[in-house]
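Example with several molecule types.
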Amino acid sequence: MLARILQSRAVWFSLLAAIVAATLPRFVSGYVLGLLTVAYYFGVFSMAWDLLFGFANEVNFGPSFLIGLGAYTAGILDNLYQPPIFVCVAAGVAAAMLGGVALALPALRVRGPYFGLTTLVAVLMLQNFIVVAAGLTGGEIGLTVPDVLSIDDKVNYWLALGFMTISGALLYGLSRSPVGLILQASGQDAVQAGALGFHVVKHKLAAFLVSAFFSGLAGALMVFYLGAASVSTFVDVTVGVQVIIGAVLGGRRTILGAALGAVFLIVAGETLRPLGDLATFIVSAVALVVILAFPGGLLGLAGGAREAA
Amino acid sequence: MLFWQILIDGFAISSLYALGATGFTLIFGVTGVLNLSHGAIMVAAAVVAWAVAGSFGFGAYAAALFGVATGFSLSLITYVLIVRRLQQTRAIREEEKEIFILTATLLWGIMIQEAIAYLFTNNAKTVMPIVEGVVTMLGVRTPANEIFTAIVCWVAIGALWGFVNRTRAGKALLAASMNPRGVTLLGFELSRIYIAVWAVYGALAGVAGVLLGMFLGVSSYSAGPLTASAFSIVVLGGLGSVSGSLIAAYVVGYLETVTAYLVSPAYRAIPALLLLVVVMYLRPRGLLGRR
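Resulting structure tokens for the full complex:
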């Protein structure tokens, strides 16, 4: 298996991209670094989503439910008691994984659009809860966190890049492992996978837990990078939509493509910002054209889809 | 007094929800598509009506007509340019088409929304109402427009019912929702039925959008929440079941109105969401869902 992974062109390309990215702080301004830092966290969100969609075949419309749980749990804990940051992050991850179980329960009972709807409702519930419990969560104004990861742009940048690289390696390895294959089989034909003796429920639950783990971890870390949490950056449906579009744009069922798509989306959105409202229009239009014309996504365009499929 | 007020206000809002959700559920029932650009199409219809009345000085009726025409054309564009292409392509596996259609219609909705924001700014707009004035009903002062909204909604829903159950084209459409292959075998062109459904849907969404613009006002920000509320009403009622959606629209409309009047307007969306979660866990196919 390891040999097969090392033969994949996408892996070598990603490794090269990560090395190039690691040297960027020498050349570019703090503004660009800040932008890329956020983009890298989004990359992890998209990869975690792709594990659920591309492999377990579960359409999760609520990535921001898991992200938001991780982000807000970590943020609230830090705001109230100021424990060390890693304690807050661990609590955020735990909350997100609990949320993952809560999402997985209906997923094991209902299929297709019905499951998608439950996840969407989960996001709306969380959003409403945050607004109503404003005393605890800061409500619509947002929550300020007293601690930050680092005050240095470069350290923050390297942390985010390292985090994305390690998450990508783990998720990619998992997706190419025997477990990933069983997951894919369970997603495509649960009955047959079950007949072959694989425990479908166990594998799907595991996929939800892994996806929740990375979403929650990325969400919690991003809170300590930004020093604040708000509904519009972590929980809103549009955040989840961006995560999904990133993954589909980059190429579904590729993990690495998801990160590429998410980073592209964030950077393109920011580059076009001077155009005002037109920026989102153009980014959406480009994404729509890619989806219509090249359903394999950016990575599919680059010829990586054949080996990934 | 408060009781009657809740009853009347709730009825008007619920009727509007019912009309908005009917088209949405019709599309799903017949073509299996969840159109996530729904809210954006409604907003576009309302904003065009507003612009036609405001900038070109047309009367309220002409403005409303332009609005409905906008909903109609946008719906057909959505189908022909986006949904049909994705349904017919061979590059995507069948079981993945759903997510592609969802993502694509969502992107399309965002494009419409941003285009509106760019051309007409994202300020809230109220469409020139067709009926003005206030009527006192059961001791409650009610804007005549509110009553007009409820009446038009029910006329439109009634027309849809008549079309589906009483005309040949409507019956073919109903049959297509039950068994597409059977309809094809009987010599009906499925692609024409689909075009017809999207046309009907566009007209319904257009009417709902214009009425919404007269009643509550819209802005480009309303697109997402509108799609979400149509979504939750349709799920509550059961995907694809029109009568289920109608009941669900009233349940949601009244729950929201009661909460807004008796508790606080800030909490208005919460009871309906809670109900939705309970329904999803206990009866995932919704109140009257088939599958």
